[in-house]
Structure formats: C-alpha cells, structure tokens
Design brief:
Largest sheet: 11 strands, antiparallel
Structural class: alpha+beta
Radius of gyration: 25 Å
Number of helices: 5
Strand order of the largest sheet: 5-6-7-4-1-2-3-15-14-13-8
Shape: elongated
Number of strands: 24
Distance between the termini: 57 Å
Order of helices and strands: EEEEHEEEEHEEEEHEEEEHEEEEEHEEE
Strand content: 35-45%
C-alpha cells in the first residue's frame, strides 16, 4: 500500500511495510534526538533514499507538520505523512515450525530453481516454488509442467518440524536481494504455518502469504530408467546451442534438434523461410542412438545455470530428458521433448 511505518525509540529506527500479502520489518541503530512514530505514504521513498549520497541521513518531523524531511548534505526530500491507525502492524507468527539455512545456500537455490516456475497466473500453484523440509534436508522445486528444476541441500542443524508448502516465486527474489550474502556464516530462519511463510535474518523479518493448493509429487514423475546416457563438454554444448539458437528463436515453436549417434551429438534447426544452422560436437554416449527436439529457451536456461566441465544428459526415446551436473548431484533439471521433424 506504499506506506512505511517508522518509529524512533531506544537508539533504534524500526521500519515496517505491509500490504497484507507481504509484510516486512527491519531495524538499525540511530542517534535519536527525540522519540516518535510516523507513517509515510510515498512509493518514491525507497528510491529517493537510495539516491542520496553515502553517509548519515537526518530524518525530521515537526510536531504539527504533516511532512517528514530527509537530508544528506545538500540533498533534501520531503514526504507526506498518514494517520497511524491506517497502518496494519506486521505481526510475527509462531516460530515453532522452522529450519535454518545458510543465506548463501538459500540465494543459490532460488537462482537454480525459480526460473523453471510458470509465469502464467492461470496456474497459481505452478507460479510458486515448492519447499520441502525433512529432518535433515531442505529442497526447492519448480515446474511449469513442461520442465522441472529441483535442488536439495543437507541442513547443518535438524529442522524443528517437517513441512511442504508453496511460496510465491516473486517473494523469493525479494528475499534473496536483501539477504546478507557477504557473510559466510549468516543464516536465514524459515518458519511456516498453514497460510504463511516467514524469513528471519539479522534484524529483518519478512512474512508472506503462501500459495493455496496441493503441489504434485514431482519425485514420481522424474524417470529412473533411461535408454541412453550422454556426457558432453559444457563449453562445447553452450557454443553449439548458441550457434543454432538464432534460427530457433525466429521460428514459431522455437525448437532445437539433438541427434545422438555414436560419439557425436548433432545440434541443428532449419526453416525454409528463415534458414538453417547445423553443428556437431563430441559426446560420450552409452546406450541407443536417439533423436529429440526441445524448446531452445529451456535448453539455454539450464546452460546458464550449469557449472563445471561436463554435464550429463539422461535420455529416453519417448520421454523427458534429465540433465545432471557433474559437480552437483543434488541439482536436477527435467525437460519434456517437443514434436520435431522425423529424420
């Protein structure tokens, strides 16, 4: 609702923002000359403060004024206040159901998983990220029903409870952006209830509404049997896909074709109105020769999130591909093929 609640007391400034689906409160030390409380109604407050020069900022409000001023050197901004009763306090929920995750691990997981979620608001469940907490593990998974990304970590400290709930993807990018990632040891406490999830780190508390609904058991749809297994050099693979993708992206279905045969992977696409691109790279193939067609964007997405020298492609003739990282077995990406040309 573009309002900020600010209270100055006991050597600290407490700032709250709340729009009923998200609530956040944080505090920092301050040199307080006179204690007080105010509510500022200004969506521009955040960007204005950010643009002020580094150093101390003086915040001031006169007794009978309805403006609050912020000053840093020659930079001065003033914003209107609002009646305090209009501001709903950010209420902390019970912390009983919780687990602790290193902030860096959390941000890494969000990056590796959230891109696979749906953008379609018609499928709210799939626009969220599934959190699964067991005694010793924490997993994030996301799918738009055509692809799935999942990342699991082992918890340093046993979780206080087990949980399974869906968090809106947009919330996680907001949380990741404000985590203290420069501190190796910093942890975020994730706590949850039936309808809410909260993230607590440092002096900050962030609460959000969960996505309602039952997320499918994605473990059951990841294949365990494959017709072939291919190991490819990641750099070779990236360069080959990059060479073919301009043709793919101009086509209506944005497809890219893979043909695995012997020790060669051919990557190509063609369209009579656009053109053709075709290249081959070495592959270490175990199992059958296979031809598959994929959405080029979905292949490029996983390449952006891949590391190491080699990635492993687990292949089925008429089913999804499961892409594994040589360096990180706890991260998997599954992708459903599209109908392509017959070769």
């Amino acid at each position: 609702n573009n309002a900020f609640f600010i209270s100055a007391a006991g050597g600290n400034i407490l700032i709250q923002a709340n729009d009923y689906t998200i609530g956040i409160k944080t505090s920092c030390p301050a040199n307080i000359e006179e204690e007080g409380v105010t509510v500022i109604a200004a969506p521009q407050l955040q960007s204005t403060i950010r643009m002020m020069p580094a150093g101390d900022i003086t915040m001031e409000k006169g007794d009978h004024e309805n403006l609050v001023s912020f000053q840093s050197g020659s930079y001065v901004s003033k914003f209107p206040t609002r009646d305090q009763v209009e501001f709903p306090d950010v209420q902390e929920m019970d912390h009983r159901n919780h687990c602790l995750v290193k902030c860096r691990d959390f941000a890494d997981m969000v990056s590796l998983v959230s891109f696979a979620a749906a953008n379609d608001k018609q499928k709210p469940i799939f626009s969220g990220i599934l959190f699964e907490v067991t005694k010793n593990t924490f997993t994030m998974a996301a799918t738009n029903t055509h692809r799935l990304a999942a990342k699991e970590i082992t918890l340093d400290e046993e979780a206080a409870a087990e949980g399974r709930f869906i968090v809106p993807a947009g919330i996680l990018s907001d949380v990741s952006r404000i985590l203290p990632l420069d501190d190796d040891k910093a942890q975020v406490e994730i706590s949850w209830s039936k309808n809410h999830v909260a993230f607590t780190f440092g002096d900050t508390y962030f609460i959000a509404s969960l996505v309602n609904g039952e997320y499918p058991d994605y473990h059951r749809i990841i294949p365990t049997h494959f017709d072939a297994r291919a190991e490819v050099n990641l750099k070779d693979f990236e360069e080959a896909v990059r060479f073919v993708s301009p043709i793919s992206r101009d086509m209506s279905y944005q497809t890219i074709n893979f043909h695995f045969e012997g020790d060669t992977l051919e990557i190509f696409e063609e369209d009579p109105d656009i053109g053709k691109a075709d290249t081959s790279i070495p592959v270490k193939l175990e199992g059958d020769n296979i031809s598959l067609t994929f959405n080029c964007n979905y292949i490029e997405d996983i390449l952006k999130h891949s590391k190491g020298d080699v990635i492993i492609l687990n292949l089925q003739k008429a089913g999804p591909i499961v892409i594994e990282q040589e360096e990180d077995k706890s991260y998997s990406y599954m992708l459903t093929p599209m109908r392509g040309r017959k070769y």
